[in-house]
């Protein structure tokens, strides 16, 4: 499988371990990542709130670059997935398309609307397929109870994202089961992580994150895993603040989707940059080691 790689901003800067894990997983599953250094930020949280048409144009440009190369786009960020997908939907409006086409024409970019945007979760569960992923497992995550945390933009708005149920999704849990982990069901798995308001109302944002972690913990999770780098930051990097807001110890290891998959496929913690996490993952990994046959 050959696909245009759209890593997003976070995985290229403050959370490079997410990019490391993605590359490891894709290499070991036969997914060829084609890189385009001229991809731009998806604009979420900034440009999209200030100028919707400009934000659509930025993402239509990204899509057109991959489209010209005859490739679909792979994302590892729920927010990037949302922005790129919503741009495709908005471009179906003739008035919007006319304005965006006019903005792209001077730079020699033409968007035709043939490219598909696929999050890594969907690629693994549908394109590669759970049986093929399971066949590659070398270190089953037996003994580790993992709470999937979908976040917002991968599931909603459901009609435009053409996603699974925004209330009762199962794809991440199915993937976790395929790699040997025990999925944990809890209400917070489809709720917001709080990141969108972290820089406006940090106390509220941290309280939101803290509640989701407490929910997962109350249902027996040893760790949480998310398909979104922004959720990863909110749940891991800001977890100390979240603990203060909910007035409870959390100590919840947070994995990004490709990290937890790569662990099952045999990657070492060093190859996945787990030491970069603010919350140590040793406790969750010890669950797997303890369950391994002597």
Q: Which short descriptors sum up this protein?
A:
47% helix; alpha/beta; four-stranded parallel beta sheet; 294 residues; globular
Question: Regions with pLDDT < 50 over 5+ consecutive residues?
Answer: none
Mean pLDDT value: 94
Order of the strands making up the biggest sheet: 2-1-3-4
**How much strand?**
5-15%
Count of individual helical segments: 13
Morphology call: globular
Question: How many E-type strands?
Answer: 8
Describe this protein's structure.
This protein has helices spanning 16-28, 47-50, 52-68, 78-90, 94-104, 120-135, 158-161, 171-178, 202-218, 229-237, 239-246, 257-265, 282-291; strands at residues 2-6, 32-35, 73-75, 117-119, 145-148, 182-183, 223-226, 254-256. The protein has a four-stranded parallel beta sheet with strand order 2-1-3-4. Strands 6-5-7-8 form a four-stranded parallel beta sheet, with helices on both faces. It has 294 residues and is an alpha/beta fold. Helix content is 47%, strand content 10%. The longest helix is centred in the N-terminal third of the chain and has 17 residues, at 52-68. The model has no long low-confidence stretch (mean pLDDT 94).
List the helices and strands and how they pair.
Elements: E1 2-6, H1 16-28, E2 32-35, H2 47-50, H3 52-68, E3 73-75, H4 78-90, H5 94-104, E4 117-119, H6 120-135, E5 145-148, H7 158-161, H8 171-178, E6 182-183, H9 202-218, E7 223-226, H10 229-237, H11 239-246, E8 254-256, H12 257-265, H13 282-291
Parallel strand pairs: 1-2, 1-3, 3-4, 5-6, 5-7, 7-8
